[in-house]
Design a protein that fits this description.
single chain, 420 residues, alpha+beta, eleven-stranded mixed beta sheet, 13 strands, elongated
Length: 420
């Protein structure tokens, strides 16, 4: 009987203890790898989602909230901006483009973004990657919608179908705008950004919906048209701004100057999406470090579990070790078999942990997408997985040193004596 077979038989004989101990290793490995993969993938998704926007104007409470709501559709912005203010901002500087957006409605839980045609022709959801269509076309007339790829998958809508939008977003759903059916005219290619879960339409259609609600409250029962819109009905919740740049460059020397100029207007909030994402990286990075430290602590505790499991089993296995010694195995071979058992436990836990990290990464990505609109692709880095797996095996080997010493010192004569 070779040494490997003896090791496997020993592990099988202590199946429950082996399973629990390797499970603790798996949890530690999964936690570490999930945190490492989400850490890099999350910030890549944030950088990607801001697209080619230099500045974002909103009436939200802070620049960070403005970016989360206006770019990542975390919530509908709470305060509107008048159309007069939009025209004032647009004419105040020779922007490359100034694209208005309005949020506040939804369809089956997916946010609706009403915007101008320039959103599809000039704004890019990811730098160097303009919008592409899977099917159909972009909205061109009133009461047409175009679906992001995730919204299309989640609603199973097809071109030509009629839908009714709902007033409100998230858990604050209100009434359905049943008077105005919208036609699905396009489905977008995936962009890997929060825009994939949005439903897009034109501004005038959105204004008509809300003007109709206003007119109903005023006791006017006729169907609202564009001719019934007042200046007060023409409201937006955000403005995407891009300043002129040199060919081949994404930055502009005038960004800071214009940012400071807009900030003097206390009725609006101005954000630089790239700057706010870096700020968020700093905030989340501290919490992220805590979770990674927690994963390392669990990792070390799993090594202690291996040591205790093997050490406690030594008292039950003294006779087995004495028999192995009696049939010719040296002290070194018996010691090596104990270390091999620990390495098998570490290897089994590490492999299981890698599988759990893949599952956990996708579960966390789905939660981020549904809650704050962040589209994360938690790809497992093979190098990180290999390092953590090797670490699990090495830690298990180190944890087995004390039990191996006990096995090495086991007396053959004392443990082969007949029991009384």
């Amino acid at each position: 009987m070779n040494d490997l077979r003896v090791v496997l038989i020993s592990l099988r004989a202590r199946f429950l203890s082996t399973t629990i101990t390797s499970g603790s290793v798996a949890v530690a490995v999964a936690l570490l790898l999930t945190m490492l993969s989400l850490r890099s993938a999350g910030f890549e998704a944030f950088q990607r989602g801001s697209g080619t926007t230099h500045l974002l104007v909103s009436a939200d409470s802070s620049p960070l909230v403005a970016v989360l709501n206006g770019v990542f559709y975390a919530n509908a912005p709470s305060n509107p901006i008048s159309w007069q203010k939009y025209n004032e901002i647009r004419s105040g500087f020779p922007y490359d483009w100034a694209i208005p957006t309005q949020q506040g409605d939804s369809f089956r839980g997916f946010p609706v973004c009403a915007t101008a045609p320039e959103f599809f022709t000039k704004f890019q959801p990811a730098k160097g990657e303009p919008w592409q269509l899977q099917q159909g076309r972009f909205p061109e007339k009133n009461f047409e919608i175009c679906l992001g790829s995730d919204a299309a998958d989640g609603t199973n809508l097809k071109l030509g179908q009629l839908v009714h939008l709902t007033h409100g977003a998230g858990s604050e759903h209100g009434h359905e705008h049943a008077e105005y059916p919208f036609t699905v005219v396009g489905i977008l290619q995936p962009t890997g950004s929060a825009h994939d879960r949005a439903v897009f339409t034109d501004l005038e259609s959105s204004w008509i919906l809300h003007a109709h609600d206003r007119r109903e409250r005023e006791g006017i029962e006729t169907l609202t048209t564009a001719a019934d819109l007042t200046e007060g009905d023409r409201k937006i919740t955000g403005i995407l701004l891009r300043l002129p740049t040199r060919v081949g460059s994404d930055g502009s020397a005038a960004i800071q100057q214009q940012f400071d100029a807009l900030r003097r207007d206390t009725s609006i909030v101005v954000a630089q999406p790239a700057q706010q994402i870096d700020r968020l990286r700093g905030i989340v990075g501290n919490v992220d470090g805590i979770f990674i430290a927690l994963g390392v602590a669990v990792f070390i505790s799993s090594g202690i579990s291996i040591m205790l499991a093997l050490y406690n089993s030594m008292s039950e296995r003294r006779r087995q070790i004495a028999v192995l010694r009696a049939i010719g195995l040296s002290r070194g071979r018996v010691q090596g078999m104990v270390i091999a058992e620990a390495c098998f436990i570490g290897l089994a836990g590490g492999v299981t942990g890698i599988a759990l990290s893949v599952i956990g990464g996708f579960a966390a990505a789905e939660a981020l997408k549904s809650r704050i609109g962040l589209v994360v692709h938690p790809d497992l880095d093979p190098r990180s997985a290999a390092i953590v797996l090797a670490g699990a095996v090495i830690l298990a080997a180190l944890a087995s040193v004390l039990p191996a010493v006990v096995a090495y010192r086991t007396s053959v004569a004392d443990n082969l004596r007949p029991s009384a």
